[in-house]
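User: quick one
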Amino acid sequence: MRKKKKVESVNVKGFGKKSNIFFNILIALVAFSCVFPFLFVIVISLTSEQSLVHNGYQLIPQEWSLDGYRYLYTMKDKLLQALFITVFVTIFGTLVNVTFTSTYAYAISRPTFKYRRFFTLFALVTMLFSAGMVPSYIVMTNMLHLKDTIWALILPMALSPFNIIVMRTFFRRSVPDAIIESAKIDGAGELRTFIQIVLPLAVPGIATISLFAALAYWNDWFNALLYIQSDNLVPLQYLLMKIQNNIDYMTKNAAMSAALSGVGGSIPKEATRMAMVVISTLPIAASYPFFQRYFVSGLTIGGVKE
Amino acid sequence: MNWSFKKTVLTGATVALCAGTLAGCGSLQGDKQKAKGKDGEETILMYKVGDKPKSYDKTMDYINEKMKDELGVKLNIQYIGWGDFDKKMQVITSSGEDYDIAFANSFASNAQKGAYADLTELAPKYAKETYENLDPAYIKGNTINGKLYAMGVNANVFAQTMFTFPKALIDKYNFDLSTVKTLADLEPMLETIKEKEPQLTTIAAGQGLRIGRNIDYVFDNNFPVAVDINGDKTKIINPFESSDTLKEDLATMHKFYEKGFVPKDAATSNTEYNLKDNTWFMRLETQGPFDYGDSLLTQAAQRELISVPMTKPLKSNAQARVANYVVSSTSKKKEKALEVINLINTDPDILTTMVYGLEGDTWKKLDNDRMEVTDKYDAQNVISGAWMTGDNSKLYINKNITDEQIKERDASIKEAEESPLLGFNLDTSNIKTEITNISNVSNQYLAGLHTGTLDPEKAVPEFNEKLKKAGIDKVIKEVQTQYDAFLKEKK
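Assistant: Done. Structure below.
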């Protein structure tokens, strides 16, 4: 025992025992508060509708039931189509976003590029000022005619200035100029240098911005609200949003049930809604561990902006 | 090594997911509807609130066939969900996008902004029959600064708030509904139900519940500036200060809340009490002449419901604008658009098809302009409900409705009183800040007061105090000035 203590005290980088316990508890609490709502949602999705109406939300419901998921199964066509749109937009969008972002960032990270200052500012300005919703709507619909197409979900987020800055910093710090020079001496062109030399060195950064982009695409519903008309182009998050908005509308107009019976009937029950939340969250939560390793290192490296 | 392993797993998973979903279904094309006027046909674009019905293509094919014969154009209806409609139409109007007809939203403010075409001269010309058939209340209610901006849907021109109960329960306990005049009269019934049927929510109340009798609000019942219909009709009041009936009802509601008739979380809850479900005993519903008593409610609930009035029938601005169609000021086919509106409002066949679906499938035509709904009829799978489609007096009438009910309907429309506020439109330019402040204060209190969660003894004075600080006196004064001018002109 005594010997052990001595060994521990050598560990100068660690915490003392007491503070270690304290921080562990603290972090555990924080982690629990993050996970708890999601667990609660899962529990609600497994509660029977009757017990929801009478007892409200309960941590351990009076009556369990799979009805929420059973109902979801009946609307599987709509759900699968929405899931397909979301997955397609997320994967394709992330590819597009990462390609554009990393190439742009690489260009402005190279000191040999003459206009790098201009293009850095060019990206930065859009981060600070934006034209607003109506002008972008006009550009999307009247000039580009992208209303009600899948592109309306992908292109508005194809380039993100924040990610550009992160990547630019990342390239600067983790890819030494000497390596790029040596590649040049060996006869590689710009594109080859980028793909074969720089990219493999930048994997943590790429993984980080991929995660940012994928999350943004997965959670996006606002573009769908603005631009999507057709039912078969509705992504999953917007489908949820629509249901929520319909519920709000119904509560505001509680005394119009007869007139609004068409709307009321189309709203899934509480448990079903929670089941939808579960379904829309799980895939992205499940993909997180794949990114996480790079994410940690990527975030710290990219965090310093010069 | 580890890295490449994970990468393989990752790409493998993505590919699998992609392929799976691709194989399962998958179409990236929007509806063919958006290719408007592709084959050189003229199309009228209409924005409508609601969800697109599954039978849209079939039904619209039929309607468009007829429409093409009559007017030479096709109608393309684009749906926007109930909850998103305001937001989306706002963007569409502010971007100046080209559309022809829309179900109006925030009618008064959009009309004042010039988003809609002035129909004062066009309507009597291109939608003559519809215009003439409309109850005068609709013309008055949809006129702003002397210009007509919308065609109301001739339906429930008056409305009254009702207490609604499932008939089975009323019969079971032998309640006498004829004694019910006010909220307070309900107490013995509610008490019995609370005791004998504890699994039911006694009063189906959520944050949207609004009580109060015979008060017509200048904007809506979320903004406490109104006229007392039973009192001095020329005076603008804050009902929370000056209406005794409202105070009385709020006190009753609080008593009910204390007794447990109202769900504990009513002030914040948005729980749905479906008409169909046997989960509630009493609720508030709005009814009008074309509901034919409780027929429509009963049809929607698929079980018998019974209602007694809480308020007097009133033809108000709100009713005139509950469903009205506007023509966009950006439309290049304003005349044609009006002709389309006219056709929907005058052709019983098109109208009934829009409201009930295809003839022979979801309904059957009988003699004497009567019809019968088949069991295939589904309220979710129609172009839109009757109240928001077209002239309800032109619809084929359900065979369940007796001639007597029709006579009653017409008599009740004649008898119903016009709200003194009908046709009054407030110019808010001088009191914009105050209006925002008052709305914020109201949001804090209204749900709590109306559901009985807050004790009116304490909360109402507090509420009034805050309203004063938010500038309600200035608003009432301004509204009164404009209202006096309006009344003068009316005479």
